[in-house]
Write a structure and sequence with these properties.
2-methylcitrate dehydratase PrpD, globular, mainly alpha, 2 strands, two-stranded antiparallel sheet
């Protein structure tokens, strides 16, 4: 099936598929996203979701960007950090319109922080996870008839 084929391709990706060019571009995308996200922590919408998310607690916790003294469960950390990135609306963009890194990087970082200390992932593993997320998003975008019509709707 199409879904099975899609899952097999994604599942089969490994660090050997990361070329030097992909690694270099990924690092640039990550740096850009972190910069935009840190700036976004000062927005009103980010303050609101941060306050809302403070009601959640867990034994697992991940960093909220720009807040050294405040951590959240990975799901909510990814949400708050993703809002911070998107609130600035100048994070990276594909055509048709989507912001790939703002959706992927906060989730990858939040999940990576949730691993036990002795099972921490490497930088290469983080780059692989980031690229798998970008690849999934790109393939879903190409499968979507809705996405192809975005430029016509705006």
């Amino acid at each position: 099936t199409i879904t099975g084929n899609f899952a097999n391709v994604i599942h089969g990706l490994n660090a050997n598929h990361l070329t030097d060019q992909v690694i270099e571009r990924s690092k640039r995308m990550i740096l850009d996203t972190l910069g935009v996200g840190l700036l976004g922590t000062s927005t009103e919408v980010c303050h609101k979701v941060t306050q809302y998310s403070k009601i959640y607690s867990s034994d697992l916790s991940s960093t909220i960007w720009g807040h050294l003294d405040f951590r959240l469960p990975p799901l909510y950390a990814a949400f708050v950090n993703g809002v911070a990135v998107h609130s600035m609306d100048f994070d990276d963009t594909w055509h048709p319109a989507t912001h790939p890194s703002g959706a992927v990087l906060p989730a990858v970082i939040a999940l990576s922080e949730a691993f036990p200390q002795k099972k921490r992932i490497s930088g290469l593993d983080l780059l692989l996870a980031f690229n798998v997320g970008i690849e999934v998003q790109g393939r879903l975008l190409r499968f979507s008839s809705e996405a192809r019509n975005i430029p016509k709707r705006y």
